[in-house]
Design goal:
This protein is α+β, with helices and mostly antiparallel strands. The protein is built from 14 helices and 19 strands. Pfam families: SBP_bac_5.
Length: about 525
Amino acid sequence: MPTPLKRRGSAVALLAAALTAVAACGGGGGAGAKPTAARVLNVATTASVTTWDPVKSFSSEIFYMANVYEPLLWKNPPGSAEPFRPALAESWESSADKKTWTFKLRRDVTFHDGEKFNAAAAKASVEASQERAGASFIWAPVKSMETPDEHTLVFTLKYAAPMDLIASSMHGAYMVSPKALAAVESDDKHFENGTGDGGSGPYKVAEYQSGKQVVLRGFDGYWGQKGAFPTVVAHITPEAVTQQQMLQGGQVDIATAVPLENIGQLKADPNLDVQDCATASNHLAFFNTARKPLDNPKVRQALSHAVPYDDIIKVGGEGFGSKAYGPVPQGVFPGSTDVPTYPYDLAKARALLDEAGVSGLKLKLTYAAENQAQKRFAPLIKDSFSKVGVEVEISPLLWNQQWELGKGDPAKAQDIFLVLYWPTYSDAGADNLFSLFHSSDEPFFNLSYWKNKEFDALLAKAGTFTATDPDKAKAIYTEAMELLVDQAPGAFLYDVRAPLVGVKSIKGLTCHPDYAFNLFFDQLAAR
């Protein structure tokens, strides 16, 4: 997961805001109004669209994509009786060594463009993702694929891997019509403006106005249970205050990004349902280890002690956050509270800077201008660092500008890079730890530019046990995170919680940390 662009070809690393929008077309209903079964569902969102190509997609358009396209499996929420549920695969099994996975596919699925879903279509979708997906890395374990019959897809892997997790990924795992895949090969603008729909999901893109509105309409030929709302209108509304006004004014039924400081007021409204959602996202600060004196671990440790963690959660997250134990959010594999943390200790910070012989240090900090939480807490870092003699210049940049700066020459890049990151699927060892801190000569998202062979070796070793012995994998990953925290190429700020607010006349509005940036509209209904 990141801030609007993410790892290895992504368009997310993360995104600074990202969820979704609302509309008031076709029916009003706001607080307290009881929607009729046929009326429009209005949603307010911050989710902009970087691409409509379901293969390349790696950013906040996931909010819409997850209703238009489907993977082989969906991951169930934590606490469910089963970890996964069928999507376009009816059943699946693996060999004892987790190197061969067989998926039995649905026989009754038609893509929106009339093409039939079958094993050949599934294989072509994975091949397209391997070749050009923003999240192509998720398919790295795949050695080969076979289609022994029209409705069976068999994966042979290079090493044991959790293909059920991979097949349920939020990015890079959608099944796409062969006709659409062929069309985009000859015309890279095939999906532009929402046209060229190659999905099989419950909704189709009916209208798209860049930066303003997305209209989804139910797909009459959908294989599964159709949604209660035949039309969903999402107005792309970056301003949290405006989203709240739209919700309380009756223009929308759901708001995905309201002002955090007003949650208490919204909870007191008897017509609203406010949920405090766990997410798989967290904030961290990269230190530029390629530049002196940040190449010295003692200096990075000093800065880590000078970060006011509790105040950052209180002010930046308005309390919607919890202590971070490394770059893996709690509740996501291989998150562990055994990972050490840095206490806020200015005396220790000063002592470490003195030991390193550093004084009069001046640093440039960048953050994504779209990210309101980072806008709130960046000044707290500046003020606290000043207390240990470190001067910080804050530079807000649009996410894409910040990301391009970070990917450039480290000698000309920022000293401190704030980022919001989340894993592509529920394995933050294969994603967060690897994406953010694995050694690379051309870092895609390791924007601390840190290189450590011992850390790399621990990640490689842990990954071989994820599918066969997850407890052993977690123990090795924890050892890697202990090394990471000790060397401090970044400071780990907090794990994010996010409120989701809707009118009580809508039922089915629930949180799902594995798909924290998604709303599944077919699962919503009128009370």
